Amino acid sequence: SESPEERPISQRLLVVANRLPVSAVRRGEDSWSLEISAGGLVSALLGVKEFEARWIGWAGVNVPDEVGRKALTEALAEKRCIPVFLDEETVHQYYNGYCNNILWPLFHYLGLPQEDRLATTRSFQSQFAAYKKANQMFADVVLEHYEEGDVVWCHDYHLMFLPKCLKEYNSEMKVGWFLHTPFPSSEIHRTLPSRSELLRAVLAADLVGFHTYDYARHFVSACTRILGLEGTPEGVEDQGRLTRVAAFPIGIDSGRFIRALAIPEVQENIKELKARFAGRKVMLGVDRLDMIKGIPQKILAFEKFLEENPDWRDKVVLLQIAVPTRTDVPEYQKLTSQVHEIVGRINGRFGTLTAVPIHHLDRSLDFHGLCALYAITDVALVTSLRDGMNLVSYEYVACQDSKKGVLILSEFAGAAQSLGAGAILVNPWNITEVAAAIGQALKMPPEEREKRHLHNFQHVTTHTAQQWAEFFVSEMNDTVIEAQQRIRK
Ligand code: ADQ
């Protein structure tokens, strides 16, 4: 077997995720334009350069015709991307349905859909069937491009069935699976009708990774309690076969953010923003507009702070940048109007003819714009109700070297485990506590700010996305070697 020293320096890696890191827009019958898309996984893997990585995933568009498919495949090949083509019905049932309506809320402790249980159960079955079918389609594309020795790294809750599909094709394939969301308590997971089938499918992988030790522990408990398997410090054992389970906390490419701050255009932007908000402290929220991010709770806490601290009303501003996602799902539409309503009320209540306390933007910012905003921010507010990790908190810390701003962070974000000592940790459900944390952050003496910031900055710059990926892949190689040795014994 190969020893670590003999391993090729640049290993071929097949990264399989629901979405490719680019969005495709059709410009003509056989022409496409491609754009890098926003999101946590994309941000993390952009930082990984050690491997000869190929991406396999859905391009986010329906391409029914052969001419279009061929042209898109060629355009994507230049970006080392390989498309999986999903038809509209599959996207509806698998992506909108099973992934985003069932698994996403469940894994974030929001429970299964409640309304009309009978219809839910019926549609549940067809959605689960579509989920399995879609995972099989991803497996087919992986198999087409797989070469012996490749590491196949499956990502996230969309592809829990993929390890099983791949191992059925080829039991020698090195397969890893990483979950970007929390894995909930086994008591939550056991409510899922397909709980056992999903767990067994994931266990087909050689290595299963989570952001935190707690999520890994929840997964092992689900396997022991629901499947009756044996949990060990190494992972989960089923009839002598071990699936290794471990925590791999993700990071960001911190250097990319730090370097961006030195770019003249960004410097110019920083100057303009500083002038724009001169005399006021800037608080910032950057989130996808999703119920897990606790945006209404955050804004209500800010309202409470303004209510209780009249002196601060014209001295602080909250900038909330919320990118709309999953806009065709009714729950997300409801959330958008709810947030708009609260913001409108607060601005009506506390605004003056010249200034409003909240600027709420329903859109994405480009990378440089985002860096400039992070750089001028005095207090960042991350109040996720649950969040696998939360990279916004990391990005903010990376951009804070001159300012040494304060991070208010939900204890329910994975990042609380790594940035907890530097941040002010809060329970986002407790509006009074968050309002008090806002006051504490705004008034924090410079020495304390610096001490807290240094702690976080140290962590963010030494636990990068690149190291995360290297750690996962090297652990996968070791796991496979150990498994081979075990079989030989
Ligand atoms: P997300 O839920 O997308 O990721 P997060 O980790 O915060 O959450 O990453 C969001 C990314 O999108 C960041 O890189 C951020 O800069 C960018 N972004 C967000 N809002 C933006 C805006 N308005 N404009 C521009 N860019 C914006 C999922 C999980 C997380 C986990 C990651 C990675 O939900 O818990 O940390 O995957 O594993």
TrEMBL record:
GO BP of this protein: trehalose biosynthetic process
EC nos: 2.4.1.15
Domain of life: Eukaryota
GO cellular component, one term: cytosol
Membrane-spanning residues: none
Keyword Transferase in record: yes
Name of the top EC class for this enzyme: transferase
Coiled-coil segments on the chain, per record: none
Gene Ontology MF term list: alpha,alpha-trehalose-phosphate synthase (UDP-forming) activity; trehalose-phosphatase activity
Sorted UniProt keywords: Glycosyltransferase, Transferase
Family: In the C-terminal section; belongs to the trehalose phosphatase family.
Protein name: alpha,alpha-trehalose-phosphate synthase (UDP-forming)
Protein's organism: Sesamum indicum (Oriental sesame)
Lineage: Eukaryota, Viridiplantae, Streptophyta, Embryophyta, Tracheophyta
Record gene name: LOC105165477
Coverage span on the entire protein: 73 to 561 of 923
